[in-house]
Predict the structure.
Amino acid sequence: MHRLPAATLVVAALLSPFMPANAADAPREPYGIALEGYPYPYPVNLLPLVNDGEQLRMAYMDVAPANPNGRTVVLLHGRNFPASYWAPVIKVLSDAGYRVVVPDQIGFGKSSKPMGELHFDTLARNTIALLDHLQIQKADIVAHSMGGMLAVRIARAYPDRVAHLVLTAPIGLEDYRLYVPPVPTEKILENEDKLTAEGYRKQLENNYAIKLPSDQITPFIDARFNIKGSAEYPRWLRAFVSSGQMIYREPVAHEIPLITQPTLFIMGADDHNAPGRPNAPEALRPKMGHNAELAQALAAKMPHARAEVIPNTGHLVFLEAPQKYDELVLGFLKQ
């Protein structure tokens, strides 16, 4: 057997998450359930936390600007994405003078996967604990997808800690319990465990209306499916399913009109993502996921909010229309 030099193996491991699937055919060591082996664009730190008596660690990036403007932006990720996908937004904000703090919430990315259930209130407390640890009294929050639901909880529970709120293609603009019957956790575990990488790709492309080349979607699939070879994969899977149950059981739609901080919704016109839609009665499915219209209606009820809809974009709006997205965010944060 021929052995590759150690340096070659290291380079291959670092590059493989960003390669197209057909360029990574050779078997490789699986990622750990805290995405060990999956590179992030900036150094990752760990904050010790205790949630429901369990010792955990919250991963985060803390990116300092070359020319600070004295302000901090916190980026909150979605359910199906590691915090690393914020890389282009981090650079734009950092270049504009913002300190950028990018956590992986507990249960996600490089953070601990808890044994207990996930709750938005707990994730909100963890995020505030991170700000306290970093001695940040007030920050702007830019959130995507599920992170938008968490941002709503933070803005409502800790209003003095949030200056501006940017909700990027957020889910939770409607109460999914009005359409979808409850599904037992064990059933969801079974379905998620059966999902293949190709099935997941189709799920992302269809549910999120992604307007990205196939090779740019591959890292998200790789981040999830290379974990399946880990000895602790069942623990990761239970945490992932718990996050889906959290979205269903803990709606925030009724709280959004109560937000008083300046708020900007940035929506993809083609984004009709609605978690749980396949489990809804067929007659109700078309009523779900009218996200751009929901954002506009909610913004009209809020004292300091507006909604911007970007044409020809889906759920990953900040990657699909980066120039327009960056322009909207930077302009809003300056107000």
